[in-house]
Write a structure and sequence with these properties.
The chain is an all-alpha fold and 72 residues long. It has a domain of 26 residues.
Length: 72
Amino acid sequence: MATISLQKAKIERENGIVILPVREYQKLLERSAPAYYLSGKEGSKLDKLVVAGVKEHKAGKTKKIRSFADLD
């Protein structure tokens, strides 16, 4: 059995640690959503769309649905 030494100060600074088996870590990576960064015209277009959506949500113009079938 291998011994691992960890500094308590570093753990506290990083707000804890997580230890996972490699296979479980790989599964988490596969299920995670990729990050995309848009810039230029496409990025500003998307930013405006998000701002408009947030405004509509705050104004109560949106509704919660459980599936796309509820949109009818």
